[in-house]
Amino acid sequence: MKRAPDRGRPYTIVGIALLALMLFPVYWMVNASLQPTGSTLQGGWFPFHPDPSGYATALRDQGRNLVTSLVVALGSVALSLGLAAPAAYALARFNLRGTNLVLLGILITQMVPGIVVANALYSAYNELGLLNSYLGLILADSTAGIPFAIIIMCSFMRSIPREIIEAARVDGAGRLRVFRSVVLPVSTNALITAAVFTFLFTWSDFLFALTLTTTETVRPITLGVYQYIGAHTTDWNAIMATTVMASVPAAVLLVVAQRYVATAATDGATK
Amino acid sequence: MISPARPPARRIAALLTGTIVLALAATGCGGRTGAGSATGKVASITALDYYTDEPEHTQWGEMLTACGKTAGVKVEQTSVPGASLTPKVLQQASSRTLPDLLMLDNPDLQQIAQTGALTPLDEYGIDSSGYAEGILSAGTYKGELYGLAPNVSTIALFYNKDMLARAGVAVPRTWDELKAAAAELTRPGRYGIAVDANATFEGTWQFLPFLWSNGGDEKQLDTPQAAQALQLWVDLVKSGSMSKSVLNWTQADVHDQFVAGRTAMMINGPWRIPALNQDRNLHWGVAPIPVPRSGQTPVTPLGGEVWTVPQSPSKARQEKAAQVLTCLNDSSNMLTLAKQHFTVPSRTATAGRYAEQVPSMTAFAKSVEGARARTSELGAEWPKAATGIYTAIQSALTGEQTPEEALRHAQQIATSS
Amino acid sequence: MRSRSRPVADLSPILPRGTGQDDSAVAAGGRAAPRARLGERSAQWMFIVPAAAYLLLFFGYPIVKNVVMSFQQYTATTFYTGAAPFVGLQNYSDILSSDLFPKTLLTTVLFTAGSITGQFVLGLAFALFFRRRFPLGGVLRSLLLLPWLLPLVVSGTTWKWMLDPDTGVVNAALRSLHLSSSGIPWLTGTSQALLSVILINIWVGIPFNTAILYGGLQNIPPHVYEAAKLDGAGPLASFRHVTWPLLRPTVSVVLVLGVVYTVKVLDIILVVTGGGPADATETIATQSYELSFQQFDFGRGAAMSNVLIVISLAFAIVYLRADRRARTV
């Protein structure tokens, strides 16, 4: 009998080929970002003479927008976890009447098109002075993160052994203390998963950036890229350098938090 | 916190804030203000424009500062990108935080004036004599003048001198010559001509010289004259002399294609000249847009930004803003701005002097004289006609409809409610 | 489909299952006085109230506001004067009777159906492929998630540039392989542009479909296959009679969720084609955006997006039914 790895080798080759095909656009983006200025209208198949000038231009023009995206994304992670964790705990562990109503609400959120939220928020934000503000974007962007975080954490907290919580309660810990010092620590994995995804949702948000900001003061990187395409078409390498920089968080999180990303994709949807 | 019942409360709050600001200004807390009379001194005013690109931004900033000095105020300039100017203005209008001096692209003026956010300029005794007819009509809404432009521009035909010389092609003057020249100049990897035919008002703007020069009119789009003009663009694409990608190109893209040598001719505006001059290897020339038959004069659309004085609780600030506006429109300032940006002074007499001083701008100065404002016939209804026109361009160039069908549809869009 | 924006499919994990997870029995020490229980209850509610309030403000309020706006003449002028007169069903009759609407609706349907079919079929193929164990399989499978994690604007921008008819790499490849001499007008032909946005959306959606279907496949116990093998079933028969029936619940979740997410896709279309050329890629979602934020006609924009909600809701009902059926099976 042959060794197992040998039998799998053709599959590995096919797998790599398939992946190369799927990830070609990502390669092409990186390739374009390293081409010298101006020549990219044609562009070569390989950046034989990598030119970092695209990145220099991109950093100069879009550096601030990257920071904006980072601030908004982190703010949204904090808000989403802060609101979703207690709610998830309550939905998972307390038998409250009305729980079903909240769950129905969460289900409905999945069907509401972002444009509906944006439409109404524009006029409300206008009255409240929240257009072009970090707070406004964080609040709006969390519409993707909060329902998702509730569901991920709820399904996890349901699986926490009952004994742990009971032991703490018998020791006289209040509800809040049980939550803080027992439930949260054992739920670290779910918290990280929820945080990673909330971060990515907000980082990639385009709709709210497009509709709820009208000036340069608070401009996320996604909108920066979009407006770049319209205004600076000679600098395709700079545009592509910006898109590469905007992709960094996704790539980094895929590598660093791979475990959480992969399980959320499957668990969140099918468990 | 967000409730539909909020607006009235908010408005009261805004009103209160306005009153407080006024009170502060009156009591001298608002900076270097004098004694609190109705005509009390104003230390600074705000201005909003869309000149975000350098060197334009700085040049306008300097001009505003200089004009502020003559009026005795400091002008605080804010620039937002063109696409976000209208949203910004609407947002400020609703929160009553409009700037004291506001720049608008001329076809947008009537739409904004319609909302009631602007004040008529004759309240300030501004002299509007000697201006070209087109630009005055663009600044007028319901018989009142709301905005004045120091300088104006239009579009023309730019060509690559080397490419034309090598192909032995003369600069086209008529539509037939244009078609022949474009075909002659087309090579693998290079098109004869590029225009902006995208689905925005920019696409409409580039089509207008062809429509108008042939006797077409935005009031009635389903005419043979309009169809012939559209057919010209369709023919250019069909024969391969013009890329089908014009459907997606902006004027900036068209410029890039020209600079990259991927097109031998293009339709564009003089504000591209500083960028064209940066490339030393590019030898370009400019000519009027070709006309249907030789001997005709092209009718081009009038471009340019008008300055307005929005509604404000402070009469004194409005007076100051009006003084700055008058200064911007002063003949010598017009001339300075025109030279900086390769545009044309909007007073006919000044434009004549300018053409003498800057001969390369003669083609533009001439075109501007007869240039037509987009809103002169339809006023605030223009955006609908403009939408109809670019929709027709898109349908015809993709081959979805014949020019006649496309324009019939355009006429429906233009006249719908 | 942008399932990625909320990869949440089945609520069954959080539906109360009566597994005795309520810890109030412990808290109340067996039998509690009614008042203490009341205090206990309100203390419990405090965990939910912030999130519930958020959901009400950012989903409940917009829905209500949107419905109200759709009956108003809510335009640029409204922002200055504050006046938004009620116009009854005028906005709805305007958008539904416009000659663009049937075309937009058809485009929305084609876009959704095309995207879902493509990403499901390919996603299933990938999932079946990765089910086999082979060296680097796990690594390759997680790298496959990258297209799904990238911001849509980034993917759209890259694809737009790759598909450029004159200078894009796709046409360059087709020309050098002599598959097409003039190249395909990916972004400038009306039917090709629609095909392009569908293809891009499929590319974005494959990883998500693969991940979920892979999870579903993993849940099928291996002994079922062994039994089928003993009965002499080939790979095709075993897929038809074992894999597919057991995967059905997962499949219905993937498909219906896919529809709900895909009908509202906006980013890809705005970035790649902007709805053009000649409105060929204009969907209900992009129309709603344009009405509200390009033309500042918030009344009609709201009406248009309500049409979108109705479509989503119709599919949601299908989803709930399918889900219930799947669970009772």
From TrEMBL, chain A:
<feature type="transmembrane region" description="Helical">
    <location>
        <begin position="134"/>
        <end position="157"/>
    </location>
</feature>
<feature type="transmembrane region" description="Helical">
    <location>
        <begin position="101"/>
        <end position="122"/>
    </location>
</feature>
<protein>
    <submittedName>
        <fullName>ABC transporter permease</fullName>
    </submittedName>
</protein>
<keyword id="KW-1003">Cell membrane</keyword>
<feature type="transmembrane region" description="Helical">
    <location>
        <begin position="66"/>
        <end position="89"/>
    </location>
</feature>
<dbReference type="InterPro" id="IPR000515">
    <property type="entry name" value="MetI-like"/>
</dbReference>
<keyword id="KW-1133">Transmembrane helix</keyword>
<comment type="similarity">
    <text>Belongs to the binding-protein-dependent transport system permease family.</text>
</comment>
<dbReference type="InterPro" id="IPR050901">
    <property type="entry name" value="BP-dep_ABC_trans_perm"/>
</dbReference>
<feature type="transmembrane region" description="Helical">
    <location>
        <begin position="12"/>
        <end position="30"/>
    </location>
</feature>
<dbReference type="Pfam" id="PF00528">
    <property type="entry name" value="BPD_transp_1"/>
</dbReference>
<keyword id="KW-0812">Transmembrane</keyword>
<feature type="transmembrane region" description="Helical">
    <location>
        <begin position="178"/>
        <end position="203"/>
    </location>
</feature>
<feature type="domain" description="ABC transmembrane type-1">
    <location>
        <begin position="66"/>
        <end position="257"/>
    </location>
</feature>
<dbReference type="InterPro" id="IPR035906">
    <property type="entry name" value="MetI-like_sf"/>
</dbReference>
UniProtKB/TrEMBL annotation, chain B:
<feature type="signal peptide">
    <location>
        <begin position="1"/>
        <end position="25"/>
    </location>
</feature>
<comment type="similarity">
    <text>Belongs to the bacterial solute-binding protein 1 family.</text>
</comment>
<keyword id="KW-0732">Signal</keyword>
<dbReference type="InterPro" id="IPR006059">
    <property type="entry name" value="SBP"/>
</dbReference>
<protein>
    <submittedName>
        <fullName>Sugar ABC transporter substrate-binding protein</fullName>
    </submittedName>
</protein>
<dbReference type="Pfam" id="PF13416">
    <property type="entry name" value="SBP_bac_8"/>
</dbReference>
<keyword id="KW-0813">Transport</keyword>
From TrEMBL, chain C:
<keyword id="KW-1133">Transmembrane helix</keyword>
<keyword id="KW-0812">Transmembrane</keyword>
<dbReference type="InterPro" id="IPR000515">
    <property type="entry name" value="MetI-like"/>
</dbReference>
<feature type="region of interest" description="Disordered">
    <location>
        <begin position="1"/>
        <end position="27"/>
    </location>
</feature>
<feature type="transmembrane region" description="Helical">
    <location>
        <begin position="105"/>
        <end position="130"/>
    </location>
</feature>
<feature type="domain" description="ABC transmembrane type-1">
    <location>
        <begin position="105"/>
        <end position="319"/>
    </location>
</feature>
<feature type="transmembrane region" description="Helical">
    <location>
        <begin position="301"/>
        <end position="320"/>
    </location>
</feature>
<keyword id="KW-0472">Membrane</keyword>
<protein>
    <submittedName>
        <fullName>Sugar ABC transporter permease</fullName>
    </submittedName>
</protein>
<feature type="transmembrane region" description="Helical">
    <location>
        <begin position="45"/>
        <end position="64"/>
    </location>
</feature>
<comment type="similarity">
    <text>Belongs to the binding-protein-dependent transport system permease family.</text>
</comment>
<feature type="transmembrane region" description="Helical">
    <location>
        <begin position="142"/>
        <end position="163"/>
    </location>
</feature>
<dbReference type="InterPro" id="IPR035906">
    <property type="entry name" value="MetI-like_sf"/>
</dbReference>
<keyword id="KW-0813">Transport</keyword>
<keyword id="KW-1003">Cell membrane</keyword>
